[in-house]
Structures are given as structure tokens and as C-alpha cells.
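User: Fold this, then the next.

Assistant: Folding the first:
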Amino acid sequence: MKKNSYHKTYLQVFFIIFLIISTSVLFVNFNVDPSKIYPEKFKVLNDKKLNVNEVVDKLVKNKNGVIIQEGLFNDRDLAKSFTKNINKVDCIIFGSSHVRPINLEGKEKVFSTTCKSILNFGISGGVLEDYIALSKNINLKNKKRKKIFISIHPWTLNLNKDNRWYRNIDDYNFIIKKITNSNEEKMKKNLYNNLRIKNLFNFNYFVQSLKNIKEKNNSLSFINNLNKKQKLPILLYDGSIIKPDRKFLNPKSFIEKGFANYKIEKNSHIDENAVFILTQYIKYFEKNFDIIFLLSPYHPEVWKNDYLIVVEAMMVVEKRAKEIAKENKINVIGSFDPRKLGCNESEFFDLLHPKKSCLSKIEKLRLNFK
């Protein structure tokens, strides 16, 4: 009888401890929220001083930069706020963080011969669905013909490679209906909500939340001298980011850990549904814009290891991107292969992210199909 009583007590204690830990993880993940995916108004630790729109408006007005810390803003909220100015520039760049350093500032100006002004929508883990959602405010009645650069990454010709795009699902559905004349691609909001609920108990998100608590600093430092070196990234008035320059040491160890294969799955490099949507997007916007495919390179060490899934993906996707460009009579600049651009190992932050010095060479490699 005593044995059963001990067993029952043990289960009760275990359940209470489990409940306390789960509740703590949920509370921290929801309130700290490193990626800013939960509603601010329901947070106990809500900081009402920081407003994305106010920050972006101030950046654009003063043409300066602001030092940003990880987790201070949601990347997609920032990008959406910048879309208010999308019709005021010559060139629009859609992509992931791979192309985020592209801007017209400093000595190494990128696209300076092509663009007088730029808005950079290179967001963390950017996917095709993000490009579509962020296109909602593009005005098709612009008198002056402008340019849209569509970054093709090794995962771009696939759908649902990153669930963070669901944050702007209404904008995505708005454009999809226009470019496909149907609601077949309409996504259900409850899918995104289910993902957010699961994320409340995500241990990795909990670790990131604790890290943010330790490093939290909500004060904003605006920078007028954009050429002065900083220890933290600087978000500029055009949406681009200036990263602190640093050496990337021991790339082989990062390859062994699988970092090069980010978002890549074996034998799943191209989804024809994604190709169809991209083609419809081109047809819809090409009446008023020059559409250009932009390919940014991976670190040379990645290309030395041809057994990697990402190397196969890059060869397959680059070839297909050029076929799509030829079929639709649009131009392609750049390449996944740094050797074709003349980018060396010192011109990369890591395996995936080229520095601005490398990105400035992209225009030199151009395929004209128009």
C-alpha cells in the first residue's frame, strides 16, 4: 500500500515540476519573444517605447542609420514598414540576409551605375512568399520605369521553406489573387497560429529568449556617420544593414556541422508550383518594371566540397533560373559560384553571407535575355 502511495506522490511531484517548467518556458518565450511573432498588447513585459514605423520614418527622413540588436524588432515588420516608400526609389531588392549589405553608401557602392536610389528587402530567411507579400504596395502606375531585383537563393524555387512569411499572409493572398486570378494559393491563418502555439514550448527559442534578457538594451542609437565602424550591425534608411567587418575562421568546421545546407533538402530543389507563381509574378509586374534575377555567391570552401547537398542545389537552381529568365526575357546577374565573380575567402562573413566587397562584383557577370 505504501509503495503505491510513494508512486502516486512521485507522479504528482513530477507533474507539478513539469507544469512549472512548461509554464515558465511559455511565459518567457511569449514575453521576451526574440523574433517578435506574438502580439505586443498581451505581453506583461511589453515595451511601448519602441515603434517600428516611427523608427523607419525617422531613418528615411534623416537618411541615417540605427544600431540594432538581435530581437529588438521583427525583420518582417521592419520590411513591411519600409514598403511605405517602395514607390519613391528606382530599384527594389527582394531577397534574404545574403543580399542585405547591398546599398549605395560608402566606397563599395552596389548597383550605382543602375540605380540612383534603392530599397533593400533582404530579410532573414527570405523566401518567395515574402517577396510576394512585400510587393503589395508597389504602384503599377509609376510613370518612370523602375527595376525589381529578385534574389534567387538555392531554396527560392520552393514553397514553404520558412514559416515566418505567414506573418504577412494577408498581403501575400492579396497579390496572389492578382497575379494568378484565383484563390487556390490562399493560406489559412490558423496554420500560422498553430505554428506560433508550438513555438511557445520550443527549447531553442527559450534559450534565445534568455540570451536576449541578458543582453537586452532597448535604447536606440541613431548614427549619422555611416562610414564610422561600429561593433553592432547598423540598419540604414534604405533597409540595408552594415555589418561589423570580421574574419571568418575555420570554415571547414562549419561545413562539417552542416551549416552550408541551410534550408536545403536532398532531391527537393525545385517545386513547379513555385516556378509557376514566380512566372506569374514576372508577367504581372514586367509591364511597368524591369525584372532582374540576382544570384549571390556562397563561400569558396563550400564549392570545394561537391558532396554537399547545397552544391547540387545551387547547380540545379542556377540552371533553372537562367531557363526561366530566358523564357520570360529578363536578365540575370551574379552567380552562386564565387569563382565566376572573383570573390575570395576573405570576402565572406560566413559560409552563406558575402561581404559588400564581393556583392559589388555581381553586376560584372550578366546574362541578357531581354
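Now the next one, as you asked:
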Amino acid sequence: MGHARVFLFYDLVARFLRSAGASVVFVMNITDIDPKIFVRAKQHGDTPEKVSDKFSLQLYTDLLLLGVTGISFARVSDYIPMAKKLALKLVKKGAAYSLNGNVYLDTNKIKSFGRMSAISKGRLKNMRLDLAPGKRSPADLLLWNTADFIGYKYNDKILGSGFPSAHLQDLSVIVALFNGTYQLHGGATDLVYPHHESLLGQLITLTSLKRPVQCWTHVGLLMSEGSKMSNSLGNAIPVRKILRRYNRNVIRLYFLSEHYRKALHFSTSAIKRLEKLDRRISEIVSVVRTTGDIAKCDEDPVTMKTFRGYVENDFDTIGILKMLTKIADDGRPSAKFLEILQILGLDY
């Protein structure tokens, strides 16, 4: 469900942009190179490829169940040649260096490093990530890993036999598909540092642009009893399980109930309250489709204007939810209201 919140927000963004006539290329990375995949494969006597394929299929299924469409998927393992090329290019530009066979991002060489996450240079010196003796700075990040084994390695005459870290994996997809410059990049708030910070620094170095990405957005975490909802903490709720109890419209309405940048504390009671709104919307849409009784609003499209105002105010979904509630209570939906439901991914 934590991932679902992120997916559904960007589905809303894409739907709104497409409704406004924009041509949207929506790409989601599939991380199929990861030490955790190797550990899982070893535990179950499978190959890393089989484990990756299994979880990828589960992801595709969950997205379909949620009604998320219009996405292209990029498996990072398909971009290894680009990863090798970019690692060498970053070293050549002086933004990365080789140490004991690994390649690290030299964060001191990136002037903007820390701005996205609002971390000062002084604090960065105390950020101890990817621990290794001899690093130029504790904050330097691993890009090409030859030290660890994850079931397979990729050979390179210069870099050595290894694999790209997540920072280099995602960079490779971005450069291959968008040449390193595009409009919007997003994810959960826990990706701001170090992951998105490292991506931005690498892109600035490679493109020589101050803003290779026009907009970075981050979705607040879904919380459970004060902790982030995640598999590693054992408090994750599978999408398929929650959808056995509630329909996907209710889940979409629930995620509208808090601003996307804020943390959302999971609450079944809050979800249950939105079942009432879901039923009311379903009832009036059913009546409209049966009787054709749609409120006239072509000459004064206040509903759509109000909706777009909320969206353009940094996706004020709380305002949108209040608007839906008012229209449902009035019981006189317009054609614009039905169009808004489609943009919101609400299927009645």
C-alpha cells in the first residue's frame, strides 16, 4: 500500500496532463539488480532472474487492479551498457573516482549537492554512506560495485567485473530514454537523499545544465503505528489483500484525503468513512446513465474550473475531495463531473 500511494499519485498527474492535451511519456523503473533479490533467490533455491520476474509480475498485476495505466516499464538490467559508459564518463569529468576496484561519486565536486535535501556541506561531511576506507568524503556514493556478489556480475575491461548501484542504474535509464533532460521526476520522500540528490548531481555533471529536470516531486510516506509501512519492517499491507475488502475507487478516494507531500497514517476507519462517499457517487452516476439527467453546465463550467484550480494549486486533493463530496450530496452531477471522475481514475 505504501508503493500504491506513490503509483496512484503519479497516475493522477499523468491523467490530468493528458486530459489537458499533453503528450505524456510515463516511465517506471524496474530494479531487477539488487542484493536483496540475490538473498531471496538463495533462500528459495531460485535464480535472481526468476525472483525478479516473479515480483515484476506481481507489480504489473497490482497496477492493473488499481487501474493504473499508460505506463512504460524499464528494467534496469537492460541498460548495463549505458551504465558502464556513464560511470567512465563521470570519472573522466572528475565527478567520480576509482577506489579499490569500485567507482564512487565525488560529492565535493558537485557544487549543488545537498540543495534538494537542504543538507549543508558541514552536515554532508558526517553522512556516512557506502562505508569504505579511503573514500574522499564519507558522503561519497557507490556507483560501480566490484566488491559484492549478487549471483552474477557484468564484465568490463576498464571498470572490472561488477554491477551498477541504484544511483547509476536509474541514471542509465534516464540518459538512454530522455538524454538526461526531461520535465518531471518523482518518488517517495525517502528517496530525496541520497538517491535523488545523487541523480541530480550526476545529471548536472553530464548535461552541463543547471536544471536538467524541471520538477522534482516527492510523495509522503504511508505510516503504520508511527513507522513507515514497508516489507522490511513487516508492517506492509499487500494491495491485493486490501482490494479484497475495499474496491479500488475507495482506495483512490482515501489517498486523496491527504496532501501528497505529507505523510499519511494508515487508518481503516478513514477508509470505511469514504465507502459512504463512494456509494453515493456510484448511485448518482448510475441514475445519470439510466435517466440521462445531467445538470447543464456547458455555458458555465464552474465544476471543471474549480477542479483545475485545485490541481494547479500543487494538487490540492483535499479540496478535490471536498468538491466531490458536495456534488455527491447535491445529487446533480454534470457532464464535467463525470469527466473529473475519469481524470481521478474513479471508475463507475
